């Protein structure tokens, strides 16, 4: 059993590694223009699939990496924050739809706005604050009560985690390793093949976005699930994931962590508040984007031009905060981290996010046509 000093040292290592990986994430997104909202916009408005292929490549790498870590015994997939025994289909659909609409109105999802904030965008700073507060209210406040009393009560329960891996093991009788690897090879392989099939995609930025961001997600699973795992904590004698806000193995996500970052800043003097993976990841993305923006001379201040622009971003930020918590994640949390688990809730959330974004883009186009 490790000593308290050992646990404290290991916790610092987990948080430092999280900051570094998050900074890499922020720098890659700023360099490559990776953006889920942008990918959907490109497809809807121009029929351009390059950024969607970036996302598919990142998801494929994350899916295969998570399965290899689990099958190799480095992490415990059943301890993942996405390994709930319930398929929260209604929460993910409603929350995902709200999030998808919100990210179009706010010019990007939570992670994209953190990247823009690091590059000097004050509009993104406003989105961050409002989204964080909305997420906090949906975690613990008024909209949390509404969420808990409505959509969260509708789900499909399973005997184990609602993931393709567990379902394969349960219904097909496969071993744990086989049940992890076979579905991962099928889903991840299809994503990789589809992403890489076009010659025009084979460019440095596209490969960096896909492989780089997918690898960051896999790295975070290792940091949280292997480096941060203590089989017997010296104080509680329980198995513990150090730095985890949920008590489970975590990777990158950017809805609830915005709320936890605000919470840590506001209650810094409270000895009961501890720095977590969630808060550190938010700071890391902003720092990584800032360093890359300054290094490439792309840092510049940007603000709202009109009152309507401000109002649109405020509405979008609220929808993302409420929707992201209700859907149990965002375009990164459910779209990459959750999908890497092959979680049913993640699949339905991603579908709803894309659907909400398409709906918002169509509505914007219709409004512009009417004004013209």
From TrEMBL:
Provide the alphabetized UniProt keywords.
Cell inner membrane, Cell membrane, Membrane, Transmembrane, Transmembrane helix, Transport
Q: Which domain of life is it from?
A: Bacteria
State one Pfam family annotation.
Sulf_transp
State its location(s): Cell inner membrane
InterPro entries cross-referenced by the UniProt entry: Sulf_transp_TsuA/YedE
**Topology of this chain in the membrane:** Multi-pass membrane protein
Residues in coiled coil: none
Q: Where are the transmembrane segments?
A: 12-34, 55-75, 87-110, 122-139, 171-195, 207-231, 251-268, 275-295, 310-330, 342-361
Q: Which family does it belong to?
A: Belongs to the TsuA/YedE (TC 9.B.102) family.
Q: What is this protein called?
A: YeeE/YedE family protein
Question: Which organism does this record belong to?
Answer: Ottowia pentelensis
């Amino acid at each position: 059993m490790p000593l308290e000093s050992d646990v404290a040292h290991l916790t610092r290592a987990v948080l430092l590694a999280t900051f570094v990986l998050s900074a890499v994430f922020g720098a890659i997104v700023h360099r490559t223009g990776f953006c889920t909202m942008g990918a959907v916009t490109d497809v809807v408005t121009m029929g351009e699939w390059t950024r969607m292929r970036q996302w598919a490549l990142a998801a494929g790498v994350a899916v295969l990496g998570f399965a290899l870590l689990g099958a190799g015994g480095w992490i415990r997939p059943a301890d993942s924050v996405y390994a709930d025994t319930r398929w929260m289909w209604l929460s993910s659909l409603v929350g995902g739809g709200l999030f998808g609409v919100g990210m179009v109105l706010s010019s990007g999802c939570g992670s994209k706005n953190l990247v823009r904030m690091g590059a000097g965008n004050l509009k993104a700073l406003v989105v961050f604050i409002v989204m964080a507060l909305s997420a906090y209210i949906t975690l613990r406040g008024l909209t949390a009560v509404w969420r808990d009393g409505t959509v969260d009560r509708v789900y499909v329960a399973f005997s184990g985690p609602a993931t393709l891996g567990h379902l394969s093991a349960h219904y097909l009788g496969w071993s744990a390793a086989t049940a992890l690897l076979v579905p991962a090879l099928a889903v991840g392989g299809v994503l990789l093949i589809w992403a890489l099939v076009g010659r025009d995609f084979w460019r440095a930025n596209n490969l960096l976005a896909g492989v780089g961001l997918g690898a960051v997600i896999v790295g975070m699973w290792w940091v949280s699930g292997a480096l941060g795992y203590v089989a017997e904590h010296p104080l509680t004698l329980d198995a513990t994931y150090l730095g985890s806000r949920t008590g489970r193995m975590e990777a990158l996500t950017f809805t609830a962590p915005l709320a936890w970052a605000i919470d840590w800043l506001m209650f810094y003097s409270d000895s009961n508040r501890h720095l977590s993976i969630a808060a550190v990841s938010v700071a890391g993305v902003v720092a990584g984007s800032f360093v890359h923006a300054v290094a490439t001379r792309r840092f510049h201040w940007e603000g709202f031009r009109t009152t309507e622009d401000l109002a649109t971003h405020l509405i979008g930020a609220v929808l993302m905060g409420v929707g992201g918590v209700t859907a149990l994640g965002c375009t990164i949390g459910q779209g990459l981290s959750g999908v890497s688990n092959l979680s049913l809730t993640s699949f339905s959330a991603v579908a709803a996010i894309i659907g909400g974004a398409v709906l918002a883009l169509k509505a914007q186009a219709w409004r512009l046509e009417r004004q013209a």
